[in-house]
Amino acid sequence: MPILVSLICPVYKVAHYIPELMQSLFEGINTDKVEIIFVDDCCPENSITLVEQFIAEHQQALKFKPSIIKQPINQGQAAARNKALAVAQGQYIGFIDSDDAIAPHYWKTLEPYVERVKNDIIEFGFTEFTTVLPDVNDTVISELPSSNLNPFHTGFFVWTRLYKKEIVKNLIFPEGMIYEDIFYNIHAFAKSKNSIRLSSCLVYYRKRAESTTSGRTSSYSNLLLNLVNSVNSTINCFERKDSVVSQVVRYSLLVSMKGFTIKERQDRRVFFRECKKINSNFTPLLNKFNHSLSVYFKFKCSKVICLMGGFS
């Protein structure tokens, strides 16, 4: 049986959440058409042991093909995902974070679209939770308007999409920084010719205080850095270039404003200095493709905020 989907799951310091993750995979995607690649990012506790135990205990009933890659040292989520991408066999590539879970109807919903192999990217929804898994009953599927501008409107999470392997075969995550999903999605959608967006909620996203994106520091500038770098290198792939630069300006303003929530003063100043440099690198692209005075005004506001923030 050919592998239709490779689902990639980095694992690091999430032992408390592994049982719910594994049970959701067992219930939501237990088919021999799927492989799940777990990457042990040198866990200092028993997270990966719990994964191995679940696989062993359910060996007779488990239909999906599990595999475990062990990193020699902790290298972060991006490096873990890249390691799995190098060996993934599926026609489509998907992702799930090890502290989240999938819906019971995950595969039932996606299978017809995967088997059709028509769409470069298949997008779906998610819902947030903190402790108790949601009880979502949305098995009625609606196909929503879709374009390669989707990530700017529906978010940059890679775990809300399946990507046809042939369009992302040479695409990897930038390592050593956070918000790497932005880079991956903009490049993937730039290559996409035919995407589809489904109304179904198929991922349960756990909000927890200690996650890598919950406490803002100067590294929050990585969001804008990945966004600007990605758009700079892919802009010619987009038909509506003015819409793309407009979205970058929107994010530039939002990110700059949120910089004032960084608590430590010196770190906050570092953030604003970084954003100022990133905005400068984006300016030539804005001048080339933007035709809107309101967009120019928003960008000017972002630059002023960065200037003021550098002295805050």
Descriptive report:
Strands 1, 2, 3, 4, 5, 6, 7, 8 and 9 form a nine-stranded mixed β-sheet that branches. The protein has two domains: 5-206, Spore Coat Polysaccharide Biosynthesis Protein SpsA, Chain A (Alpha-Beta Complex); 218-309, no CATH class. It is globular and about 60 Å long. It has helices at 18-28, 47-57, 77-85, 106-116, 150-154, 165-168, 180-191, 221-234, 241-258, 265-289, 293-309; strands at residues 5-11, 34-40, 65-70, 92-95, 101-102, 121-129, 143-144, 161-164, 195-206. Helix content is 44%, strand content 17%.
Quick synopsis:
Helix content is 44%, strand content 17%. It has 312 residues and is of the alpha/beta class.
- Specify the helix fraction band: 40-55%
- Summarize the helix and strand pattern as letters: EHEHEHEEHEEHEHHEHHHH
SS field, number of helical segments:
11
CATH fold category name of the largest domain: Spore Coat Polysaccharide Biosynthesis Protein SpsA, Chain A
What is the molecular shape? globular
**Percent of residues in β-strands:** 15-25%
Instruction: Calculate the mean pLDDT score and round it.
Output: 94
**Over all CA atoms, what is the radius of gyration?**
20 Å
CATH architecture of the largest domain: Alpha-Beta Complex
